[in-house]
Amino acid sequence: MHVTLSAWQALLIAIWVALVESRILGTMTLTMRFSPLMTGMVVGFVMGDIRQAMIVTAAIQLVYMGFVAPGGALPAEPAIGAAIAVPVALLGHMSPQGAIAIAVPVALLGSYLYQFRFFLNTFALKPMDKYAQEANARGLKFAIIVIPTLISFLLFIPLMFIALYFGAPVISGLVAQIEHGTLIHILNSVGGGLAALGIAIIMQVIGKKRLLPFFFLAYFMSVAFAKLKINMTIYAIFGVIFAILYVMLNNKNSETNH
């Protein structure tokens, strides 16, 4: 499928990123910030190729599966990485592994941009002490919610728009010119290694030996059933069934011990 990135498409994606990074919707946007999946779907919808966008985003998600965010701080911004890498991959017809190699450094730069937003907030929130002394609830709400949200939109929308509208086509054009070259091979290799690293991290995060068999069961099921071309919905149903059986057996053992 031939996809393009017009000015309004770049603007919509930029607005989405600003919405997610502003955390204006609370826990929901916080979760979207930690995971690239929703951003990838939005990018696919805007660019008219949801299927390929989700294939690329699913590969990017592997890198960030084991990410831990103590206090909401991330070493990278997966949503920003996906917002740049997915359009580049769609425009340049890149493999998911190549897109990973682009998403990781972009997400790392995005974390610095997110911290810069906090720096700007320190100057904008000076009236908050005055509002607190006056018990001005409306003023506090404006200082705590409205001002940081405006800063987020003013910061992320222009920068993301410039990166998408002017940067993504250049990178995708370069990728198209060296499609079968050594650099693309390197990007694919590095991207595949980062995905494997993400899987290793999530295994470490799980940390419970009794849960690891389910991880290996899912992996070898995907290998054994590859020729059957089973889609992810069926695998998700298998996962739900195994989870229900695990909980039922645990409850039964608990009742027996008591």
Layout of secondary structure:
Blueprint: H1 7-22, H2 27-34, H3 37-47, H4 50-63, H5 78-92, H6 96-124, H7 127-133, H8 137-177, H9 182-206, H10 212-224, H11 232-257
Helix pairs in contact: 1-2, 1-3, 1-8, 3-4, 3-5, 4-5, 4-6, 4-9, 5-6, 5-8, 6-8, 6-9, 7-8
Question: What would you note in describing this structure?
Answer:
It is a single chain. It is built from eleven helices and no strands. The chain has 258 residues and is mainly α. The protein has two domains: 201 residues, no CATH class; 51 residues. Helix 5 packs across helix 6 and helix 6 crosses helix 9. One of its GO terms (cellular component) is plasma membrane. It is found in: Cell membrane. This is PTS Man IIC.
Q: Could you give the order of the helices and strands? A: HHHHHHHHHHH
How large, in whole angstroms, is the Cα Rg?
21 Å
Helix content: over 70%
Coarse shape: flat
- What is the distance, rounded to the nearest whole angstrom, between the alpha carbons of the first and last residues? 60 Å
Instruction: Count the DSSP helices.
Output: 11
User: Can you count the beta strands?
Assistant: 0
- Report the uncertain regions: none
Provide the domain count.
2
Mean of pLDDT: 76
Largest sheet: none
- Percent of sequence in beta strands: under 5%
Structural class label: mainly alpha
